[in-house]
Design brief:
The chain is an all-beta fold. It is built from no helices and eleven strands. Strands 2, 4, 5, 6, 9, 10 and 11 form a seven-stranded mixed sheet that branches. The chain is globular, with a radius of gyration of 13 Å.
């Protein structure tokens, strides 16, 4: 599976941006899928993670502002980001793994190269 993110760029505080992630290989409902981010000088963290029940868990810092979705027919994940803050500046990654057992930053098997989102006025 290869993953390619797009949609990053420079955005003003309060603005919105939508990230996309296209998977080259077929991924199905048995895969854990997630968005992560890594800010400068910080550890990579989960932003939105789809659980085995289809429910999406968001990081507290983005709850209510970010919405993750996916188009299974097109093997594409999305992350709609709104009310952006400077602290949202980070490299954003999508990741998938063929199991829900370790659906976290340490357990994801396939990663994209990331797309940079810079929040600045």
């Amino acid at each position: 599976v290869q993953l390619l993110e797009s949609g990053g760029g420079s955005v003003q505080p309060g603005g919105s941006v939508r990230l996309s992630c296209v998977a080259s290989g077929a991924i199905d409902s048995s895969y854990c899928m997630a968005w992560f981010r890594q800010a400068p000088g910080k550890e990579r963290e989960g932003v939105a993670i789809w659980g085995s029940d289809g429910h999406t868990t968001y990081a507290d810092s983005v709850e209510g502002r970010f919405t993750a979705s996916r188009d299974n027919a097109k093997n594409t994940l999305f992350l709609q980001m709104a009310s952006l803050k400077p602290e949202d500046t980070a490299m954003y990654y999508c990741a998938v793994t063929p199991s829900f057992r370790h659906c976290d930053v340490y357990g994801m098997e396939f990663w994209g190269k990331g797309t940079l989102v810079l929040i600045s006025s």
